[in-house]
Amino acid sequence: MGNNEEDAFHGFTEETLFGDLDQFEACLDWLHSESDDDEGKRNPGGSKPGKRLNKRRDFKKHYNDHAAQYFCDDPIYDERDFRRRFRMPKSLFWRVFNAVASADPYFEHRRDATGKWGIQPLVKVIAALRVLANALPADAIDEIFGMAESTVCETIHHFADALDRQFSGQYLRQPNEEDVQRLVQRNAERGFIGIPVAQAEHLLSEHSTL
């Protein structure tokens, strides 16, 4: 770490964010060097020679945090919070979780090569759903889930593949007449938002006589 970089960091203020690009870049260089120094002190090495040093990730803590927030008897966040953040009710979440976990051994809870327990299946599924439901970049949830970007991408791949195998026959097919009638009836109960009343009534009567 050079003195110029450290001086730039300590002299950095909000006003210089856009006003002095050189100083801002020097600040970032200093932060990266400090992060690398800390990693070197904490970890003796990566899992393979030449590999970057491993970050310490407390998978059990992240599991306990999410269990307390959503999945215990008295969760911190209620059903309304759950539905808003996961874009589905909790009952559907458990259906998806059980289907995915039974379809792919990737979602089993296993030990890694060093004997340490890996990421819990529940956390993997939650992470995949949160990224997909909220259109987040894969590296946006590291602090919340303790999962590296590459692990999140791998998890999403397995998650999507398992969903396809488990549900494609039911949901990724052409709708039959029963499906159409059910959808029409459901939208009729909602009032056919965005469709003129006369057209909606005609559509409903047309399918009710089939």
Q: Class by helix and strand content?
A: mainly alpha
Let me know the largest β-sheet: none
Overall average pLDDT: 72
Number of folding domains?
3
Q: What is the general shape?
A: elongated
Weakly predicted, low-confidence segments: 5-21, 34-46
Encode the helix/strand succession as letters.
HHHHHHHHHH
Question: Gap between N and C termini, in Å?
Answer: 77 Å
Radius of gyration: 25 Å
Fraction of helical residues: 55-70%
Region (Disordered): 34-55
Report on this model:
The chain is mainly α and 210 residues long. It has 3 domains: 3-42; 59-171, no CATH class; 177-208, no CATH class. The chain has 10 helices and no strands. The relative contact order is 0.07. The model is unreliable at 5-21 and 34-46 (pLDDT under 50).
What would you say about this model in short?
This protein is mostly helical and 210 residues long.
List the helices and strands and how they pair.
Blueprint: H1 3-10, H2 21-42, H3 59-71, H4 79-86, H5 90-103, H6 121-134, H7 142-145, H8 149-171, H9 177-190, H10 197-208
Helix pairs in contact: 1-2, 5-8, 6-8, 9-10
Question: What structural keywords apply?
Answer:
210 residues; mainly alpha; 3 domains; 63% helix; elongated
